[in-house]
Amino acid sequence: MDDDDAEYMQGSDDEDYGFDYSGEEGGDDTGSLDVENMYYTAKSKKEDSPEQALKDFTAIVDQDEEKSDWGFKALKQSTKLLFLVLHRPNDALKTYTKLLTYTKSAVTRNYAEKTINGILDYVGGGKGGPVEVTVLEKFYQATKDALREAKNERLSAKTNLKLAKLWLDRKEYMRLSKLISELYSATEASASGDDQSQKGTQLLEIYALEIQMHNETRNYKKLKEIYNASNNIRSAIPHPRIMGIIKECGGKMWMGERQWNRASEDFFESFRNYDEAGLPQRIQVLKYLVLANMLTGSEVNPFDSQETKPYKSDPQIKAMTDLVDAYQRREVHTAEKIIRDNHSTIMDDSFIRSHIGDLLRSLRTQYLIDLIKPYTRLELSFLAKQLNVDTDEVEELLIDLILEGKIDGKIDQVSMRLELDKHQSLERRRYTALDKWAGALGQVHTAVVGKSSSSGGRELPDALAVP
């Protein structure tokens, strides 16, 4: 017994997906032994003589006037042979379309659903080689027509979601956009007042697809709309993978807006959901979380949490762990070396690569502040040499620090020198303190005068009395 037969022999007590089927799993027993022998003889020829096997399966279907389970299984094998082995997708479509007519009575509801999902998986998965988009559409359209005739709305929605994922993977954004609109309409039409949880769950699945499309097409305005809409859904029981996708795209959105703290929060939620679902995306999102956490300037190590600690020594994460240690010690040269030596685990990701510049700039800024503290005058060339960058970048960093008030000084662009005025800085702090003190005294005076006026000249309480 192979996997196909094992699936068929599994229990049929799963929930009903709307197929009408016979009560007896074995179908019509008349001549079943002969047909069974024909079926397994044909299967034995699949590897060595696929064409002959196909003819034998076709013979079983031709004599199967009552549409039995053996005819269904022969059509399933024919479809697989035509698509995966003989690479004749158009002929496979014909046998698949005929197979769909058997789902009404020949086999159990569970086996019919597994067969449909299995065929659609390998049709869209590229296992049979390149397939024209129009052929893929015809496979799914035939499926949707059969499900519509069976009034199977739930499985129809699942099929449309599977097709939407296929268009997303193939970057067929026009087709995906059209299908998403159909999914929204179907969800609104099918959900009643008592099905708010089911409606919310379906909407989140659609949002997850749409938010990925907008992320890939860089339509950040629409991405934010979908992100906010997903946060407004309260009644839903989504799969952790769905929330992992939404939060990951949300984190990337916040990173684009340079809101590092919000990005870090969303990446953590995404990682937690992916981890709960046991999906490999958790490793990549954990890298994003580490990156966002460093950009916040936080001194908290992201691997100190209970959820992330088990991955601290993971080979794919080790480079990011070392980068965090270098960042917290303000060792810019060590950080640069880690990035160079671990190009495949850090820089091969386009998203991380687009923000490494922000990270190095932040690290160089902190390093620069610590470096200039003991001095009153420094050559820009010296600072450039210490940072291992050119003088133009050092000048740009210093200008930002001066404008932000993080250092007190000026740049002599003639001699290319940074001049720090520590005395002026001390005096400025003194005058600032005096100004605050004078302002506070003024507020007390105003309060005392106001109280005196309102009391009509009566004696002030001891707490407000002026000595």
List the defining traits of the structure above.
disordered C terminus, mainly alpha, single chain, 3 strands, three-stranded antiparallel sheet, 467 residues
Short description:
With 467 residues, this protein is mostly helical. The chain contains 21 helices and three strands. The chain has helices at 3-9, 32-44, 50-62, 69-85, 89-102, 109-124, 133-149, 153-169, 173-190, 196-216, 220-231, 240-256, 260-277, 281-295, 318-328, 332-341, 343-346, 350-372, 380-387, 391-403, 422-454, and strands spanning 377-379, 409-412, 417-420.
Can you tell me about this structure?
- The protein has 21 helices and 3 strands.
- The protein has a 3-stranded antiparallel beta sheet.
- It is mostly helical.
- It is elongated.
- Helix 2 runs antiparallel to helix 3, helix 6 (109-124) runs antiparallel to helix 7 (133-149) and helix 19 (380-387) packs across helix 20 (391-403).
- Mean pLDDT is 83; it is low at 8-28 and 463-467.
- 68% of the residues lie in helices and 2% in strands.
- The protein has helices at 3-9, 32-44, 50-62, 69-85, 89-102, 109-124, 133-149, 153-169, 173-190, 196-216, 220-231, 240-256, 260-277, 281-295, 318-328, 332-341, 343-346, 350-372, 380-387, 391-403, 422-454, and strands at 377-379, 409-412, 417-420.
- The longest helix has 33 residues, at 422-454.
- Strand 2 (409-412) and strand 3 (417-420) form a beta hairpin.
